[in-house]
Amino acid sequence: MVHILGATNSIFNHFIAEIRDENIQKDSMRFRRNLERMGEVMAYEISKTLSYESKEVTTPLGIANVSQLKEQPVIATILRAGLPLHHGLLNYFDKAENGFISAYRKHHKDGSFDVQVEYLACPDINNKVLILCDPMLASGMSMVLTYKALMNRGKPLHTHIVSIIASVEGVEYAKKHLPENVTLWCGAVDDELTAQSYIVPGLGDAGDLSYGTKL
Question: Under CATH, what is the fold of the domain 2-51+63-211?
Answer without folding.
Answer: Rossmann fold (3.40.50)
